[in-house]
Queue: 4 jobs
Job 1
Amino acid sequence: MAGEGGRSGSDAFGSGDPDLAAASISPMHMVAGYEAGAFPMDSDDDGPVGWYTTDPRCVIRVDDARIPRTVARMLRRRGYEVRVDTAFSEVLDACGGDREGVWLTPRLMRGYEALFDLGIAHSVEAWDGDRLVGGLFGVAMGRFITAESMFHRAPDGGNAAIAGLIHIARTNDFALIDVQMQSPHVMRFGATTMDADQFAVALSEALAG
């Protein structure tokens, strides 16, 4: 997962799958949406996938990211291995679950799969031997990376994925991790909030590289 995060610029992609294009989640739509500071959330209806923003926006500036001592200690004890992009589809399935009405629907998963094929979407995975115990996925463009959704199947599996994402962001010169909405959990890892104007500036700078 290099700092370039794949190609940036919505004009770099064709419309691709017509079903994804009709749902506003073709690679072209997805890249343009993220470049505009929005993120997709689907529903059960048949219309286009909705694109949303939040104000304030919750982000982790990579320079300010931290791993809580208790989390670092537990991760050392558990010995999970962090891998990147070895089980993207499985991470998507685990984040989507089998609940009706969840935002990550099968067609939106297809949209992220298309971005993965282009090197734009990525998964960060926590493994205990050959068992996937936690993970998250997001998109990477320029020096901007997102954490769209996370899951865990074992204690600290999700924490291992977040810690892995922070390490990857640091070593690959990313500047901004978008976690979208504030929660006590992400605040422990150095997250902060920005108003819409501040986020627009930070996003523009990160996309510029």
Note: Residues 2-15 have pLDDT under 50 and may be disordered.
Job 2
Amino acid sequence: MSEVAPYSEAITETSKAVGKSIDLVRDFGQPVAEAYGLVIGDRIEARRERNLDAMTRRTRAILRERALLEAAPVAEAIAIPLLKAAEGEPRSEMLEWWATLLANAMDPARQNEVRKEFIAVVRDFHPTDAIVLKKMADLYRLDFAPAAALRDANISETSVSVSLRNLYMKGCADENNANYRITPFGIELVRACSS
């Protein structure tokens, strides 16, 4: 199995680009940097590196679990925005989605499931959105009744309502008389982000 090493250059380039933006403001003047709170830039960069490291380790674990002997090359149009989005995501629930999405993009048997537009949608997800969408996929062809479906998930009904609205706006769910149903786009997104 080839490692994620080919993508380390993309990770490095993404970090450099973000770092250059911070450096530009810093170089403009210390008072401006302090006014915008960019003094903590080093901590932000370190956090991004930790996020990418956690995602990379999880991606490797997924590929090992599949006993994948040879990883497929990932198109830059997928790899770069995926890595850039994942570096800013500290929440473990969402890092799991990013790691699985990357693993699927590297798996020759599944790489066609990963679409560039999925990255933009997942980037805007809250972990509750991911939980609700996954549950909707499990209940495919049924109208989604939030209270019953998520009783065990310990998520408030209002939080589920906000997630359903976001999923609707992202094209992952349809609404009909306050009933929601997962769309084909939502089904494919869940498939691309599932092991």
Note: The chain has a mean pLDDT of 81.
Job 3
Amino acid sequence: MTTRVDRGDAAAERARFLGEFLRDPARTAAPAPSSRALAEIVCAPVSAPGDPVVGELGPGTGAFSALVQERLGGRGYHLAVELNPRLAGLLCRRHPAIDVVVAGAAELPALLAERGLGGADVVLSGLPWAAYPVTGPRLTDVIAGSLRPDGAFTQFTYVWSRWAPPARRQHRWLREAFEEVVASRTIWPNLPPALVYLARRPTAVGHAEEPAGARLP
């Protein structure tokens, strides 16, 4: 049963998230937290048995983090990489079991290595496509290189942006960094509606940066 306190907490979180978006849309790319329906699909690769290492990029206020913690139940290792220090602080207070680091997503391999974790079993991303740089090492390659051979990567995107040039470019990069890339059904209960890419079996990585003015497929 949803109580008045629950509704108040949800409203406060939406207001906080919107405030961060208005303050710095480049760091907080969405105007509202992700829904539970979206989180269920993004977090699907987090296994029930064993002690998986989970890397989370751009956790925001923790819409995916809470479900990861629920699924881990005290097992494994959960590393969250958040660029926004205010949201990182909030996540630390809400989920003290998560190792929250204020850093860029490209630092994930180094952060895993510093902790002696080797590769991740799962990497979840709440980053917008616009956060993936078009120069320098591809972030898709960095993520693929941080995974174990049987690891999985999930990335959500809003349906309305699926055919925009950044999304088309990143989808191509995903196909080049992983042997298998599949898209979920549309998650209509999320606002805005979204879908999730699931990528498995990372391939050899290290592609050259995108030439200026390159045509998209």
Note: The CA atoms of residues 108 and 146 lie 7 Å apart.
Job 4
Amino acid sequence: MKTRIAAALLFSAVMATAGCYQQGPATTVQRTNANTQVDLSGNWNDTDANQVANAMIKDCLSRPWASQFKQEKGRKPVVKLYPIRNRSSEHINTKFFTKQVEREILNSGIADVVAASDETGAARAERRDQAANASDKTVKSNQQETGTDFVLNGWVISSNDAAGGAEVRAYLTTMELVNVQSQKKVWIGQKRIKKVVQRRSSQW
């Protein structure tokens, strides 16, 4: 009899405990506007990439290098982007950032943009395939690529400082535009971003 009572009490305790830990779905998803600023961890994110790209290119394209080139050569300058290098203390999707910069330059209409060095393989492979298989009327010939007048490269560095539950994260992005023929730097731009991250201490 005592054994049955003990078993019943144990079963009731297990069920009660299980009831206390019943939870809803482990993951919830809420869609938001793509332009909405969302900061979760305090790390570099898409908002930072957009802000830096917009500020950098706005400054770059407002400088006289493009108009001077057009006045001298009679055409728009051609720019090639090299991947932005990540020299910060955290992972940054530099390809995403590089594409933001490339888009801003192209959409401005002030300069033309050619494929980056790591993007030329597909078109060149296609030309090789056409040389073997396409008709003479439609085949694309080699040595007809558009030469680059300027290369744009840059890097991101970071500096962190923390005390207690607060942390300051600072990012400095530097970009340089270099004349391919003369090696002259015609523009240097910098953009700073600083964030203060507050973390709540665990309470028991």
Note: The beta strands are 78-81, 85-86, 112-114, 150-163, 166-179, 185-198.
